[in-house]
Design goal:
The protein is α+β, with helices and mostly antiparallel strands. It has 16 helices and 24 strands. A twelve-stranded antiparallel β-sheet has the order 17-18-16-13-15-14-23-24-22-19-21-20. Strands 3-6-2-1-9-11-12-10 form an eight-stranded mixed β-sheet, sandwiched between helices. The protein binds aspartic acid (ASP) and magnesium ion. The site of magnesium ion has 3 residues, from loops.
């Protein structure tokens, strides 16, 4: 018999009628013969109300007591749902995280799941009962050996459900919510947002990291890491919603369900090339014109970085396969000539390789980026370009240093050669290149200029920010050859949250003091618009289309940072919403499929 884990969110169990309606849905599935484990959140705004009460009494309530308090929310809804099912004649049993044995780390408020004991759930399923489990909570042993209640962090019931599905090796995990599934963008910002029918876990992680709050990112990570068949659906309709695909059926190991390695593969692609265009005038649309020209000549661009320099010029660099280098350079020169961009220079350089690491939480989990750059710096590997995102980081390095770099990275992240895989089979699911578009507001651009040619500076910056828990949004590096020498100087440009600006300034100023020539510059507040899709790479013209849509809307792009499945453009803060709408419509995401 098929075993399905279903999770119902707070709104879906928001009042007694709704609980009863959900119970009826569950009863039908049970009678159809499914084995069901149901995970529920607390009713409606219960969790917020409980937190509110605690803070009315105490400005800084003890975290153990907060977990005691918050876990009661889910305990109410599981019991009421079991009572409703009993009324419908369905045998059901509700259980707290402690009763099931959802073992977590010994931290309150944000505990990660280590292991789920399945014996008790399985026993009740065998007795043909519906098993109802409290989401968002687990249990740990305190230092004196007694069990303690923990919670997983806000929105954590999704994580409970997917973790239970992984532990039980369930046939499916269905997340029921008050929206129809995952949409192409935030419907409050863009009315025409449409349902995404299928999305890969990697794409979803990029979108979640960009603020699409429908699914808890940790739930998607578990689905990705253990190959759980996950879908997001409406509690009130029968539509199939959004399916998440492309997980890897990894075995549970002893590391702890949520504590596995954050990096799980590395890959090297040789014979790549970089093109650098400097001193480009800052004219709206110039980037679009360049990349349209390249796309119409069928040149496949891989990674793109663009920065508007504080002196009013623009620098662009992009990477591509070595054999297309000459063609690309001559196209760029021709376009720049026709645009009368007399000062612009185009420099192409081949014989580089792209080294990438993939995993989960690469930019949101602190320290992974720093570790990568530290390993490369220690091995004296020069980084010619970088591209970062949630599920992948790529570095361009000299061909001759490539195998040494790969070896060092495999060793540092404890990867074996067999982990050199890539999910290329997922390219172009459903034929659409771009799955969704997201907007991040309140970002700020920090430029670290005139960095000598040491990877160690990059490693130092990333380590310093990671140690201070300051997340990096996007990050690019642009290089310049120092006149009449073979040395390079580079600019590293990051985006951070505006709220972290002052803290970051202090940390960076101190960290960079050993390199007196290095300058720190801060830009104004910006918005970041990102298009996400596994079909973006290797598809000439996708990026150009996005750049053109912004230029048609009269929006100047201040910075571009891409990675394999995400293209981000930073624009003026006040242009953010228009930019989101322009990009959403240029990829025809608002059209019903
Ligand atoms: N009730 C918890 C919260 O509101 C967990 C959840 O709903 O997923 O954050
Ligand atoms: Mg939720």
């Amino acid at each position: 018999m098929a075993l399905v884990v279903q999770k119902f969110g707070g709104t879906s169990v928001g009042n007694l009628e709704r609980i009863y309606a959900i119970a009826k849905r569950i009863a039908i599935k049970h009678r159809e013969g499914l084995d069901l484990v149901i995970v529920v959140s607390a009713m409606g705004d219960t969790t917020d109300e409980l937190i509110n009460m605690a803070y009315q009494i105490h400005p800084n309530p003890p975290s153990r007591e907060i977990d005691m308090l918050l876990s009661t929310g889910e305990q109410v809804s599981i019991a009421l749902l079991a009572i409703a099912l009993d009324r419908l004649g369905i045998a059901a049993i509700s259980m707290t995280g402690t009763q099931v044995g959802i073992l977590t780390e010994a931290t309150h408020g944000q505990a990660r799941i280590l292991k789920i004991q399945t014996e008790r759930i399985l026993k009740h399923l065998e007795q043909d009962q519906v098993v109802i489990v409290a989401g968002f909570q687990g249990t740990t042993q305190s230092s004196n050996g007694f069990p303690e209640i923990t919670t997983l962090g806000r929105g954590g019931s999704d994580t409970s459900a997917v973790a239970i599905a992984a532990a039980l090796n369930a046939d499916a995990c269905e997340i029921y919510t008050d929206v129809i599934g995952i949409l192409t963008t935030d419907p409050r910002a863009v009315e025409t947002a449409q349902l995404i029918k299928t999305i890969s876990c990697d794409e979803m992680l990029e979108l979640a990291s960009l603020g699409a709050a429908v699914l808890h990112p940790r739930a998607v990570e578990i689905a990705r890491n253990y190959g759980v068949l996950l879908s997001v659906r409406s509690s009130w309709t029968l539509s199939p919603g959004t399916s998440l695909v492309g997980g890897y059926a990894k075995h549970m190991n002893n590391e702890g369900l949520e504590i596995g390695k954050s990096v799980d593969s590395a890959k090297l692609i040789e014979n790549q090339a970089i093109v650098r265009i400097c001193h480009l005038p800052d004219i709206v649309g110039i980037t679009a014109t360049l990349f349209e020209g390249l796309a119409s000549a069928n040149v496949s661009i891989d990674l793109i970085a663009q920065v508007n320099n504080f002196n009013g010029t623009v620098t662009i660099s992009f990477t591509l396969a070595d054999q297309q280098l000459e063609k690309a350079c001559s196209i760029c020169r021709r376009i720049l000539n026709s645009l009368k961009a007399k000062d612009a220079t185009v420099i192409g350089e081949g014989e580089v390789s792209k080294l990438s690491i993939s995993g989960v939480g690469i930019t949101s989990r602190y320290g992974t980026l720093a570790r990568l750059f530290e390993v490369l710096a220690k091995n004296n590997i020069n980084l010619r370009a970088i591209a970062t995102s949630e599920v992948k980081v790529s570095c361009l390095i000299q061909n001759k240093e490539a195998s040494k770099a790969l070896k060092a990275v495999l060793h540092a992240f404890e990867l074996s050669n067999c982990q050199l895989y890539e999910s290329s089979s997922l390219d172009d699911i459903n034929g659409s290149k771009v799955k969704g578009v997201a907007l991040d507001i309140n970002q700020v651009q920090i430029s670290i200029l005139n960095v000598p040619n040491h990877s160690i500076v990059l490693a130092t910056i990333c380590r310093g920010l990671a140690d201070a828990f300051i997340p990096i949004g996007s990050m690019v590096q642009l290089e310049y050859r120092i006149r009449s020498s073979s040395l390079y100087s580079r600019d590293i440009i990051l985006t951070l949250y505006q709220d972290d600006r002052i803290k970051a300034r202090g940390i960076l100023t101190e960290l960079l003091s050993p390199w007196p020539g290095v300058r720190l510059e801060e830009g104004s507040t910006i918005s970041r618009v990102s298009a996400v899709g596994v079909g973006i790479r290797n598809t000439p013209g996708v990026a150009a289309k996005m750049f053109r849509s912004l230029s048609i809307a009269g929006i100047n792009i201040q910075m571009i940072a891409t990675s394999e499945i995400r293209t981000s453009c930073m624009v003026d803060e006040s242009d953010g919403l228009d930019a989101l709408q322009a990009v959403h419509s240029c990829f025809e995401l608002g059209q019903i499929t």
